[in-house]
Amino acid sequence: xxxxxxxxxALMRKEFxxxxxQRYALNGMLLYIVxxxxxxxxxxxxxxxxxTPIVWNTLFWIILLFTAxxxxxxxxxxxxxxxxxxxxxLASPQQIILAKIGYNTALMLVLALLGFTVYAFVLGNPVHDxxxxxxxxxxxxxxxxxxxxxxxxxxxxxxxxxxxxxxxSFPIILPLLIMLLxxxxxxxxxxDRSVSWDEIGVILAIDVIVLTLSWLLFPFLWRS
Length: 224
Prior knowledge:
Number of strands: 0
Strand content: under 5%
Helix content: over 70%
Shape: globular
Oligomer: single chain
Order of helices and strands: HHHHHHHHH
């Protein structure tokens, strides 16, 4: 157990060091978020009455979804075959996929919180229950990171990983996105938190299922 934790910690540290050395990827994601928010601001500046709370919420999750796809798509695609073989000799496949998911979760949390701050500052904040909305962001970050990391690992084995990732991620992300929209809508309207337990349970179930599938299936994918 201690050895597994040590391997996971070393792999997480490696992911953060690689991202710090190649900060253009993180800077690109931040620029994408700010640019998308600014475009929304310009679009609704002339007709602010069209920016209803539902439109506000939907636009934010669309921005966050494409940010997640662009940020996580490179998880395995950028890894060369020689480096993957080297990792295979040092750590177990389970630790590798959990380290990738852990790093992508941390990255998505930063991007989601920063994106929400910028989005609310520029376009206003109609959310009545901030705590529930932030919980939705956390659940969404975990779900996006786990789902897209696994899909990235599968797509990296194909000749056209970008296309394959778009096709494979759609049936996984769609039910998660629907639940996130419902849960964030409840927080937006300030409904009693007991109303949102069903959505929270479904999102947690999706996250657990994806994490379990990653743990069970990734070793077979890694050996291929």
